[in-house]
Specification:
This protein is of the alpha+beta class. It is built from 3 helices and 2 strands, in the order E-E-H-H-H. It has a two-stranded antiparallel ribbon with strand order 1-2. A hairpin with a 5-residue loop joins strand 1 and strand 2. Helix 2 crosses helix 3. The radius of gyration is 14 Å and the shape is globular.
Length: about 100
C-alpha cells in the first residue's frame, strides 16, 4: 500500500490502493517512516492478522483533534464526490484552518 506524509502533524495516514483509508494518531517519538517495515511485513505475513504495534502512551488531545480534522476533511471530499489524495486532503485541512485559527 502506498504511504504518504500526513497533511496534518501527528497523523498517520494510509491510502490503500483498494479504496480503504486509515487515519490514526502517530505514536509519539516516531518519524514519518519509522515502523513502516514492521507494518508492511505484518500485513503480508501468514495468518492475515494485523501488525502489533509496541505499547505506547495514549495519544494526546492535540493528536486526537488532528485525526478528527483529517477524517472530517476526507468525509467532506467524499461527500462532494471529489478525488481523495494527499494534496486534496492537505488543501481541505488548510481551508478548515483558514480565518478561524
Amino acid at each position: 500500500m502506498p504511504r504518504r506524509a500526513a497533511p496534518c502533524a501527528g497523523v498517520h495516514l494510509v491510502l490503500g490502493v483498494n479504496g480503504l483509508l486509515w487515519v490514526a494518531p502517530r505514536p509519539s517519538g516516531s518519524s514519518a517512516d519509522a515502523g513502516q517495515d514492521a507494518v508492511t511485513s505484518g500485513a503480508q505475513g501468514s495468518g492475515g492478522g494485523s501488525a502489533a504495534a509496541p505499547a505506547s502512551a495514549a495519544p494526546s488531545r492535540d493528536q486526537l483533534l488532528a485525526v478528527v480534522v483529517v477524517g472530517n476533511a476526507i468525509r467532506a471530499l467524499a461527500r462532494c464526490y471529489l478525488p481523495i489524495f494527499p494534496a486534496a486532503i492537505a488543501a481541505a485541512v488548510e481551508v478548515r484552518r483558514g480565518p478561524l485559527s
